[in-house]
Design a protein that fits this description.
By secondary structure, the chain is mainly beta. Helices cover 12% and strands 38% of the residues. The chain has helices at residues 19-26, 98-105, and strands at residues 8-11, 14-18, 33-38, 43-48, 70-71, 75-78, 81-82, 87-90, 93-97, 108-112, 117-121. The strands form 3 sheets. A 5-stranded antiparallel sheet has the order 1-2-9-8-5. It has a 4-stranded mixed sheet with strand order 3-4-6-7, with helices on one face. A hairpin with a 2-residue loop joins strand 6 and strand 7.
Length: 128
C-alpha cells in the first residue's frame, strides 16, 4: 500500500530488479521470502515464507546509467528445488524480472498506466 522506489535496468526490452530489493519490499507480507547464498554449491537459495535477512544496500538508488550486465551463472534454488530463472549480475548484484519472481512466489502484479507504476499486491495471486 505504500510507494517504494526501486532501481531497475532494461535488458533486451525487459525490466530487471535487484533480487534483494524485491525481497526487502515483501518482508513482513504473506509472500515474503529470504535470500541466501550457498557458497558450497555456489547457488542462490530463495526460501518462501521466511522473513528477508537484511544484508545492507537494499533499496539504495543506483546511478541508472548504462551498466555491463552478465548472465548469472549461479544455480538458483527455491525451497530446496532447482528453478530456472533468468538473472543478470550488475555490479555484484543479481537482477531478476519482476514477473518471474511474482510467478515463482504467486504474487499479484498490475500496471497502473495513469501513474506509470507497477503495483505489487501480496493479497492477490499471480496472473499471466
Amino acid at each position: 500500500g505504500a510507494p517504494v522506489s526501486i532501481s531497475a535496468y532494461n535488458i533486451s526490452g525487459n525490466n530487471y530488479f535487484k533480487l534483494r530489493d524485491i525481497a526487502m519490499v515483501l518482508k513482513g507480507t504473506e509472500k515474503q521470502f529470504n535470500v541466501e547464498w550457498d557458497n558450497t554449491k555456489k547457488a542462490i537459495n530463495l526460501i518462501s515464507s521466511q522473513p528477508y535477512t537484511v544484508v545492507g544496500g537494499e533499496l539504495v538508488s543506483g546511478e541508472m546509467v548504462a551498466q555491463n550486465a552478465s548472465l548469472n551463472k549461479s544455480s538458483i534454488y527455491k525451497d530446496g528445488k532447482i528453478v530456472s530463472l533468468l538473472a543478470y549480475n550488475i555490479n555484484g548484484n543479481n537482477y531478476f524480472k519482476l514477473r518471474d519472481l511474482a510467478k515463482a512466489f504467486n504474487i499479484g502484479l498490475t500496471w497502473n498506466g495513469s501513474t506509470n507504476t507497477i503495483e505489487i499486491d501480496t493479497s492477490k495471486d499471480y496472473i499471466e
